[in-house]
Design brief:
With 690 residues, the chain is an alpha+beta fold. The chain is built from eleven helices and 41 strands. A hairpin with a 5-residue loop joins β34 and β35.
């Protein structure tokens, strides 16, 4: 595709941007509505023999404001692309049986009151339901002998499985609605956490009563794992041991996730006593994975307690001797997205690496070796016993696409074609990576996206996009919620600076903004704006900025300081660092101590945006969702009402049914419309032709 070639050639050469060729008249702009027409691929799985690949694919129906997810199947060479499931329900979490004859998945069909576990033959036949749990099923994994499956369910620990539904029904229609907590967490992301616990169960492939594997151990999977439990447990190749992650610290304001192992009991037997493999590490450990030969157990370890973005170190434990060692201690990247190779001599990982997610080979004796380059990002790895490696590839102009990777050369062969026609008929812009000097003269990497038909002889408005986190980077991928190509269809040049604090540039860079959250990132954004102001193709009178979460926080910091932006968008922003103690993670003891401790009040005063209110004068669109418990809605109201009292032009865009992100199709379209309207009203964009 032409747009793909132009974008990648530009990135690879690093040459000055030339005038893009004229856009064919038949191509349509990449509007937000068009972005919702893209079918979105989820993480693939591959059969043990490498012959077949399955991945969930979600299509959205705008008129219904919902998505439908089916499982699709491909042959190893990309042929035979088709929907494997076509039921009206959504299907997800596919898992191949060890012999490759069956596919397990999770779905909520017919009279299911919660998602259940199903198994379906690969070569034809109907899906068969294995569970009927009122508390539902997630994260299915096969036992090596193919006779049982493990899964996770969030259950009331004091009730047998058969009585869970009754309590859930009572809770759904209560006459008394009071709830009581005497521990943590109270909330996680967008929900209040009751006394239910995540536990691992096993069920026979023929169905029947599930067997509890962790329920009798006195431990539970992390209570805040509401966004997924796939990486929290693993089954040994012999099928007789379970590795799982649990919080070993009983204190209500401290979390120490450790890796435990426990012998899997015989049916009807009492659970054995679990063994803590990481008791000597006070920070978090997780993501246990057994090597295929069963000799090793890998896991990821952090060393700085209370710092979620601490380097994830790849650890190996010899199961027989108990000896544990760290791989690549001097490698300044975090281990993530890991899969074992069949020979047990190496792992592969999808590594956040300087603005791109790259596949690395991680030999147990040797050095990390990059497999893929920087032309695109690759993640969601799946590896067959025969060495066939598949992944999802994406860039700013390519949505997640199924590819087969040569693990030696990194060459990618495209397998999925379901979005090809739409993409070929879409008018994308180009993009490149540049570096500039930020705070203290440090080199800062920044992604620049150019609108379609970019012409260096013309002047363009700039939208400075400020990423969230703060400890994650913007990598080369199609970010649907703040999509640079959608903003490009409005005529904007957009920028994603990976300012101080971003991940993937070394641990010192990531930790360089703690506990002073504001100063270096603020300087980096201002210096990025200065870089653009020096370009002859930027209209310095039409520069705007905005971001969400930490990006909203930094936007609010900018609002109270000197800056060149005509208008701002502050979404899900932390505005007041004192009232952020209502956030879901704020029951944890802070890494640098509470605001009441000596010296910390001065730190908060330097870094809390609300102290800059006297200087607020820039028109600001404030956005928040009621169900956002990561940054509670009071932050949006505090900023909005402060701007109102000061007479600064403002508007409050409020979603009663959204959380930290705007996830519903029609709400997303409205979000983009309101952002565009705000910029049109306040000089950042020429009004659209009506």
């Amino acid at each position: 595709m032409l747009h793909r070639i132009v974008a990648l050639a530009l990135f690879a050469s690093g040459a000055a941007l030339a005038q893009a060729p004229a856009t064919p008249a038949a191509k349509l702009p990449f509007t937000v509505e068009r972005s919702w027409e893209i079918q979105r691929l989820g993480a693939p799985v591959i059969s043990p023999d490498g012959r077949r690949i399955v991945a969930p694919v979600t299509r959205f129906v705008m008129s219904e404001d919902k998505g439908y997810t089916d499982l699709w199947i491909w042959n190893r060479d990309g042929s035979g692309e088709r929907a494997f499931t076509t039921h009206a329900s959504n299907e997800g979490s596919p898992a191949f049986s060890p012999d490759g004859r069956f596919l397990a998945f999770v779905a909520q069909r017919e009279d299911d009151k919660a998602p259940q576990l199903y198994v379906m033959p690969l070569d034809g036949g109907e899906a068969r339901r294995l569970t009927r749990l009122a508390t539902g099923v997630q994260s299915p994994k096969w036992f090596p002998d193919g006779r049982r499956l493990a899964f996770v369910s969030r259950v009331f620990a004091d009730l047998p499985l058969s009585e869970q539904g009754k309590r859930l029904e009572e809770r759904a229609n209560p006459k008394m609605t009071g709830q009581v907590w005497d521990g943590a967490p109270v909330t996680a992301w967008d929900r209040y956490i009751d006394e239910r616990q995540f536990h691992v169960f096993a069920v026979d492939v023929g169905g029947g009563e599930p067997q509890a594997l962790t329920l009798g151990t006195g431990l539970q999977l992390p209570r805040s794992a509401v966004q997924g439990t796939d990486s929290l447990f693993a089954i040994s190749p012999e099928g007789n041991e379970l590795a799982f992650v649990a919080d070993s610290d009983p204190a209500p304001n401290v979390t120490n996730n450790d890796v435990f192992t426990v012998a899997i009991p015989a049916a009807g037997a009492v659970s054995a006593t679990p063994v803590n493999l990481t008791a000597d590490n006070p920070a978090n450990d997780g993501n246990p994975l057994y090597s295929p030969d069963g000799r090793l157990l890998s896991f990821v370890q952090q060393r700085i307690k209370g710092f979620y973005a601490d380097k994830g170190r790849l650890m190996l434990r010899e199961r027989r001797s108990g000896e544990t060692r760290e791989l690549f201690a001097d490698w300044d990247r975090s281990a993530s997205g890991l899969v074992w190779a069949a020979d047990g001599r190496r792992l592969y990982g999808a590594i956040d690496d300087a603005g791109t997610t790259r596949v690395y080979e991680l030999p147990i004796d040797g050095r990390p070796r990059p497999v893929t380059g920087t032309e695109a990002s690759y993640d969601s790895l799946a590896l067959a016993k025969d060495g066939t490696l598949v992944a999802l590839r994406q860039s700013f102009v390519e949505p997640p696409t199924l590819v087969r990777l040569d693990p030696r050369s990194g060459r990618a062969e495209k397998l999925s074609t379901i979005n090809d026609a739409l993409l070929a008929a879409t008018d994308f812009g180009t993009y490149e990576s540049i570096t500039y000097r930020g705070a203290n003269g440090a080199e800062i990497q920044m992604w620049v996206n150019y609108p379609p038909g970019f012409d260096k002889s013309k002047k363009y408005p700039l939208f400075m996009l400020i990423h969230g986190g703060p400890h994650n980077a913007i990598t080369n991928g199609m970010h649907f919620r703040w999509n640079a190509q959608v903003f490009g269809s409005w005529g904007y040049v957009t920028a994603w600076p990976n300012f101080h604090g971003s991940s993937g540039f070394g641990q010192a860079f990531t930790d360089s903004i703690n506990p002073e959250w504001a100063e270096k990132p603020y300087q980096d954004v201002i210096k990025a704006a200065e870089w653009f102001a020096a370009q002859p193709w930027i209209d310095t009178r039409r520069m705007v900025a905005g971001g969400g979460s930490y990006g909203g926080y930094l936007t609010s910091v900018i609002l109270g300081r000197e800056h060149p932006f005509r208008a701002l968008v502050a979404h899900a922003k932390v505005y007041n660092l004192y009232t952020q103690y209502a956030a879901d993670f704020s029951t944890e003891l802070p890494r640098f101590g509470g605001f009441w401790e000596e010296g910390n009040d001065a730190v908060l005063r330097r870094n809390s945006p609300h102290y800059g209110a006297a200087n607020f004068k820039t028109p600001t669109l404030v956005v928040h969702g009621q169900n956002d418990l990561r940054v509670p809605v009071n932050h949006g109201l505090e900023l909005y009402q402060t701007l109102l009292m000061k007479g600064v032009p403002t508007r409050f865009l409020y979603y009663p049914n959204e959380n930290h992100w705007i996830l519903k199709p029609q709400n997303s379209v409205f979000w983009y419309q309101q952002v565009r309207k705000w910029f049109e009203e306040h000089g950042g964009l020429e009004p659209a032709s009506r």
